[in-house]
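User: Here's a structure from my thesis project, written as structure tokens. My advisor, Dr. K., wants to see whether a designed sequence matches the one we expressed. Can you design one independently, without my sequence as a hint?
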């Protein structure tokens, strides 16, 4: 990933804490989307995937609290609020895009699999670009260690999702969602690297309106 971007995100404890909180919320959203699957479609693999995502979110959150020591509390709160709103908007638009691209004639089972395949692949691919960079570039040994541990589990998740996609012939659908995620992630990173002053002047937002920092909920 862009070295300049991560130089900014990892430049001081306050930005590290804010970025880790964004990652924690992405992991939480992933678990929420998986748990939304109807009970009749629930599997041991889905259960483990959701459990892993929640554990990742918790461990990232623990580090957020540890690194909230750089500067006034209000400055830190404002930074996290801005970045979390950008993260939630990125997730909401990704979810909306995945919904719109499920074939109208899909059965309930296919509907669930389309959403799981596209969303999980896109998010897991994103995290597998972020965590290896954190493992190499983060100044804090705790961040490098956690990122290294998360990489192993994310590889397992990617294998599971890839297998699901191939088994059900969803390759083209998943590719479309991944391409959409790439564009949304670029906008997300642009906001994270923007100064508060520049953000206020430009008022650049995602095309999907969003209010607050509540993460999008998936319902099949």
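Assistant: Designed independently from the structure alone:
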């Amino acid at each position: 990933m862009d070295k300049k971007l991560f130089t900014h995100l990892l430049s001081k404890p306050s930005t590290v804490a804010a970025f880790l909180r964004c990652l924690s919320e992405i992991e939480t959203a992933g678990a929420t989307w998986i748990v939304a699957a109807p009970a009749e479609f629930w599997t041991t693999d889905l259960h483990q995937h959701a459990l892993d995502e929640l554990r990742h979110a918790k461990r990232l959150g623990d580090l957020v609290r540890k690194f909230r020591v750089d500067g006034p509390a209000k400055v830190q709160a404002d930074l996290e609020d801005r970045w979390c709103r950008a993260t939630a908007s990125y997730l909401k638009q990704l979810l909306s895009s995945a919904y719109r691209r499920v074939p109208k004639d899909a059965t309930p089972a296919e509907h669930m699999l389309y959403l799981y395949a596209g969303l999980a692949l896109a998010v897991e691919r994103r995290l597998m670009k972020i965590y290896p960079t954190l493992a190499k570039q983060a100044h804090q040994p705790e961040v490098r260690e956690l990122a290294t541990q998360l990489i192993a589990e994310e590889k397992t998740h990617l294998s599971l999702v890839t297998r699901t996609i191939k088994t059900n012939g969803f390759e083209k659908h998943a590719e479309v969602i991944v391409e959409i995620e790439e564009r949304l992630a670029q906008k997300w990173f642009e906001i994270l690297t923007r100064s508060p002053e520049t953000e206020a002047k430009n008022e650049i937002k995602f095309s999907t309106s969003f209010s607050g920092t509540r993460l999008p909920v998936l319902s099949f």
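When you compare it with your expressed construct, this may help: The domain at 3-194 is CATH 1.20.1260 (Ferritin).
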